[in-house]
Amino acid sequence: MSVAGTCEICLAASVSDTCMRCGQLVCAEHFDEETGLCVECLADGGGGEIPTDTEKEPFRF
Description:
Blueprint: E1 17-18, E2 25-26, E3 31-32, E4 37-38, H1 39-43
Antiparallel strand pairs: 1-2, 3-4
């Protein structure tokens, strides 16, 4: 994915990915490739499966 800007977690590194759970733009250091989540969502226990079916109700915080 091509995104521009600064990581919303460290505010220093260039953005390389977007968290699939919260939508934060994050650098490679704060993104988990395996889950597609930022480190903050991983810390919240967000390591569960992310629904891909658009018929399902959207994720609620």
